[in-house]
C-alpha cells in the first residue's frame, strides 16, 4: 500500500470552508447563516484563549488551525518539505547521489508508543548501515483522506513526525562525529530514487525467527550493505523487521542496548518545538522548571530534571481488557521495562496460563497493570517513603486517559493518605486532563506526557505499556538513577 504524503498545496482554510464541507448539498444555501455566527464565536474564543494563555509560547510555530474539524497540520508538512536536505543537487552523500533506505512497512493504526519504538530501531538500522533514513508521518489511517476516526471521534489521519519529535530521525542534523546526512521525507526519496531495490523483510527475518534484537540488527546491516543499489525500500506489505513480539521480550531485545544507547538516534533524540511549547505553557501545572526549557531541537537530556516530581502512568478505559489478555498469555514486561538493574520486576507465573488464566493469576496481573485507587495510593506511599532519605517528592503528574471525575477522586485519596500517614502534603497534583493546549498539541498529548515522565525525578510506569517502555529507554540512556524508575 502506498501511503499518502504531505499535501502539495494548502487547501482552502478557515472555519466557514470546513463547515461548508460538513453540510449536505441541499443545505448549503443556508451555509452563510449557519457558519458566520459559529465562526465568529470560535474566532473570539480562540483569540482570547491563545492571547492570554498560549500565544507567547507559540512564536515561530505554525498558527493553530481554526474550525470544527481536527487540525490537518498542512503547514507542518510544508515546513518538512523546506528542510535544506531536500535538494537533489546537493553533493554526495546527499541529493541524487546519496544512499537511502525507506521502511514502507511501518506500523499504522497504533498508538504513538508502538510507532515510536519501531521508528527508533529502524532509524538506528539506517544509521548503522550508513544509509540516509527516510522518515514518515505518524499515520493512523493509510487512506488519502485527512481524517480518520477513533472511539467515534474524528482525528487526524496522519501527523507529521516533526510535530512530535526532532533529532536525527526527524530530519535534524546528526552530530558532526557521526558523518551522516540528515533524514529526508518520502517525497524527496521518490524524487531522487525513481528506481530502487525493494526488499521483503521475510527473506532476512524468516530464518531468524525468535532471534535477538542484536542478531536481527546485524543481519539487516549486512543485508543493506550487500545491496549495491543506492536506493532501498522495504516493501509496504512486508512484515515488520522489529515486531511487537521482539519489543515485548527483554530476553530478546536488550542485547541491542549497548549499541543503541550510544547511537545518535537516542543520544540526540529531542521533543518537537510544539511539545516544548506545551510543556512551557503548562509549567505552573506540571513543574516550574519547565518554564525555562532550552531551545527546541536540543537533545531531550538537556531538558531540566524535574526535581521533586513523581510522574505516574495510569491507563484506564478498555486497557482492562488488555490486562486480562496479558494474564491469559502469561506476558512479561515489555523489553525496555525489564532492564536487570531496575528494582521492580514482575515474576513469571509458576506455570503458563495456556490462554486461560485462573482468577488469582488474573488478579495478580491486574494489580500491576490496571491498579485501582487504593492500590495506586499504597504504591505511591511506599515509593515516596522508600526514597525519602535522598529524594523529596513534592508534586505529582499523572499520565492518563482516565475520566476527570475518577481522577479527582484519585487526587483526593492521595492527599488524604499523605495526611493520614504523617507525610508532607503534596504541593500540587496534576493530570493530563488539566493541561491547556492547542488542538495540535492535544492530538499529540501522548508525546507531551512522555516528555514529562522522561525527566521526572521519579517515574512509576506500566510494565506492559509501550509508552512507559519508550520513556524508560530514554531515562536509562540519560543516566537517571535506576531506583528512580518504578512500576505498579
Q: Could you give a quick summary of the protein structure above?
A:
This protein is an alpha/beta fold and 488 residues long.
Strand content: 5-15%
Distance between the termini: 40 Å
Global Rg: 23 Å
Report helical residue fraction: 25-40%
Note the overall shape.
Answer: globular
- By secondary-structure content and strand pairing, the structural class works out as alpha/beta
Mean pLDDT: 90
Low-confidence stretches: 6-32, 46-51
Largest sheet: 5 strands, parallel
In DSSP terms (H or I, runs of 4 or more residues), the helix count works out at 20
Instruction: Report strand order across the widest sheet.
Output: 13-12-11-14-15
Count of DSSP strands: 15
Walk me through what this model shows:
The chain is of the alpha/beta class. 40% of the residues lie in helices and 12% in strands. It has 20 helices and 15 strands. The strands form five sheets. The chain has a five-stranded parallel β-sheet, with helices on one face. A four-stranded parallel β-sheet has the order 2-1-9-8, with helices on one face. Helix 20 (466-477) links the parallel strand 14 (456-461) and strand 15. The longest helix is centred in the first third of the chain and has 24 residues, at 31-54. The chain starts with 14 loop residues before the first helix and ends with a strand. The model is unreliable at 6-32 and 46-51 (pLDDT under 50).
Amino acid at each position: 500500500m502506498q501511503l499518502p504524503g504531505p499535501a502539495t498545496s494548502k487547501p482552502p482554510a478557515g472555519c466557514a470552508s470546513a463547515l461548508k464541507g460538513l453540510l449536505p448539498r441541499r443545505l448549503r444555501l443556508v451555509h452563510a447563516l449557519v457558519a458566520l455566527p459559529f465562526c465568529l464565536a470560535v474566532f473570539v474564543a480562540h483569540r482570547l484563549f491563545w492571547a492570554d494563555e498560549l500565544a507567547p509560547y507559540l512564536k515561530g510555530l505554525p498558527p493553530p488551525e481554526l474550525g470544527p474539524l481536527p487540525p490537518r497540520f498542512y503547514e507542518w508538512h510544508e515546513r518538512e518539505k523546506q528542510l535544506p536536505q531536500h535538494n537533489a543537487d546537493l553533493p554526495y552523500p546527499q541529493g541524487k547521489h546519496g544512499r537511502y533506505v525507506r521502511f514502507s512497512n511501518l506500523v499504522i493504526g497504533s498508538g504513538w508508543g508502538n510507532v515510536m519504538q519501531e521508528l527508533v530501531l529502524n532509524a538506528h538500522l539506517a544509521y548503522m548501515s550508513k544509509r540516509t533514513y527516510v522518515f514518515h508521518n505518524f499515520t493512523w489511517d493509510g487512506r488519502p483522506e485527512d481524517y480518520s476516526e477513533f472511539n467515534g471521534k474524528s482525528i487526524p489521519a496522519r501527523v507529521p513526525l516533526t510535530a512530535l519529535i526532532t533529532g536525527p530521525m526527524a530530519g535534524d542534523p546528526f552530530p558532526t562525529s557521526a558523518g551522516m546526512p540528515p533524514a529526508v521525507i518520502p517525497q524527496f526519496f521518490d524524487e531522487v530514487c525513481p528506481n530502487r531495490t525493494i526488499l521483503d523483510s521475510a527473506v532476512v527475518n524468516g530464518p531468524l525467527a525468535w532471534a535477538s534484537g542484536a542478531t536481527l540488527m546485524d543481519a539487516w546491516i549486512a543485508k543493506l550493505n550487500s545491496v549495491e543499489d543506492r536506493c532501498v525500500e522495504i516493501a509496504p506489505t512486508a512484515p515488520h523487521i522489529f515486531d511487537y513480539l521482539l519489543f515485548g521480550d527483554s530476553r530478546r531485545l536488550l542485547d541491542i542496548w549497548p549499541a543503541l544507547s550510544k547511537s545518535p538516534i537516542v543520544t540526540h533524540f529531542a521533543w518537537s518545538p510544539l511539545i516544548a511549547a506545551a510543556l512551557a505553557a503548562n509549567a505552573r501545572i506540571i513543574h516550574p522548571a519547565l518554564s525555562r526549557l532550552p531551545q527546541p531541537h536540543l537533545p531531550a537530556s538537556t531538558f531540566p530534571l524535574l526535581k521533586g516530581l513523581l510522574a505516574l502512568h495510569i491507563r484506564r478505559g478498555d486497557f482492562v481488557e488488555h490486562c486480562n489478555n496479558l494474564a491469559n498469555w502469561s506476558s512479561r514486561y515489555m523489553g525496555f521495562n525489564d532492564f536487570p538493574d531496575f528494582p521492580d520486576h514482575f515474576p513469571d507465573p509458576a506455570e503458563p496460563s495456556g490462554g486461560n488464566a485462573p482468577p488469582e493469576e488474573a488478579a495478580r496481573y491486574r494489580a500491576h497493570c490496571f491498579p485501582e485507587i487504593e492500590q495506586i495510593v499504597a504504591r505511591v506511599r511506599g515509593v515516596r517513603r522508600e526514597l525519602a532519605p535522598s529524594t523529596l517528592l513534592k508534586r505529582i503528574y499523572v499520565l492518563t486517559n482516565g475520566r476527570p471525575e475518577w481522577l479527582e477522586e484519585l487526587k483526593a485519596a492521595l492527599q488524604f493518605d499523605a495526611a493520614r500517614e504523617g507525610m508532607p502534603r503534596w504541593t500540587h497534583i496534576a493530570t493530563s486532563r488539566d493541561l491547556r493546549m492547542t488542538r495540535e498539541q492535544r492530538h499529540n498529548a501522548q508525546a507531551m506526557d512522555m516528555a514529562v515522565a522522561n525527566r521526572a525525578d521519579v517515574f512509576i510506569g506500566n510494565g506492559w505499556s509501550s509508552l512507559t517502555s519508550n520513556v524508560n529507554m530514554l531515562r536509562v540512556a540519560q543516566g537517571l538513577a535506576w531506583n528512580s524508575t518504578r512500576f505498579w
